[in-house]
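Recall from the previous lesson that a structure prediction takes nothing but the amino acid sequence as input. Here we apply that procedure to Methionine aminopeptidase 2 from Vigna angularis var. angularis. The sequence below is the only information supplied.
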Amino acid sequence: MKGILKPGMLMTDICETLENTVRKLISEDGLQAGIAFPTGCSLNWVAAHWTPNSGDKTILQYDDVMKLDFGTHVDGYIVDCAFTVAFNPMFDPLLEASREATNTSIKEAGIDVRLCDIGVVIQEVMESYEVEINGKVYQVKSIRNLNGHSIGRYQIHAGKSVPIVKGGEQTKMEEGEFFAIETFASTGKGYVREDLECSHYMKNFDVGHIPLRLPRAKQLLANINKNFSTLAFCRRYLDRLGETKYLMALKNLCDAGIVQPYPPLCDVKGSYVSQFEHTILLRPTCKEVISRGDDY
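The prediction returns the following tokens.
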């Protein structure tokens, strides 16, 4: 992907190129293998959970900082990873802060390591960086209300959180667990809130049977169950399945508590956020970085 990304590209084309490559490489096979969640391509102050909806005409610019967050799964075992792309070298220290923080926290992670101890290390690394943007110097901050997470089968967030600032939970990492280790470096407040149009949705993992009155909502739910189960999806994925005029039905599923919307998470407008992420498996005698390649 890094080889083909350049300013002037349509965000939708970037996502579809990546997604179609993943589908081919992993030999997509229904719920047995394929894409694990929508391709995040959040720009600048948007930290996470943004992907273009159909018809979106956003174009990647030279001065953008884009987080490419994507995932695959085989038999529900998910690999979640991310890297950041910026064409302007002015942003290099910001990217380096999150890359270094992520790599340091991977070194720190292990069986019986307390999650809060990882947060301390991440914040230390992150705050040792500053970045000069258009003549103004910013202290790099960890985004305090974003974190890494344990991963379960068909469950992207499995209950444990890996903080990226100090003061997190005392819970320990355990043998056999998968974790997404991710860090977010920001020039803003270091705090995100929900904003902008929603594109990401996911069926709640342990939702029981909830009776629905709207036939259209039942029909949409059947399609979600068949194609995504409890994996996250986006509106583009529904469009690709041939679903049309589904927004009312989707809202109905959200209102009923069956599906959860995940709107974009944004720091203060005008700021910049970078992210790097890897998935690790804690084996009895070592930790394996499943998503590591020769590119990042």
